[in-house]
Amino acid sequence: MIKVIFRDRIFEVDERRVKLERLLLNLHINPEDVVVLKDGKPITEDKWLMDGDEIKIHEVVSRG
User: Terminus of the chain with fewer CB atoms < 10 Å: N or C?
Assistant: First the structure.
């Protein structure tokens, strides 16, 4: 299971190995609208997540 924290909610995703990009798409989250942290550090959407990983998804706001 991969633990996902997003908008003060916790999800457990039943995957052993999945790319972050695929996980975000499965959760209907646009990768361009968020920053994802793993172990407190930002990761890119091409990174693999493994069983037991925990990530935090933070929405970003762009002001122009």
Answer: C
Q: Which CATH class is domain 2-59?
A: alpha beta
Q: CA angle at residue 57 from 48 to 37, to 5 degrees?
A: 55
Radius of gyration of the chain (CA): 11
* CA angle centred on 23, ends 21 and 28, rounded to 5°: 95
Domain ranges of the chain: 2-59
pTM of the model: 0.89
Structure tokens at 47: 């990174």
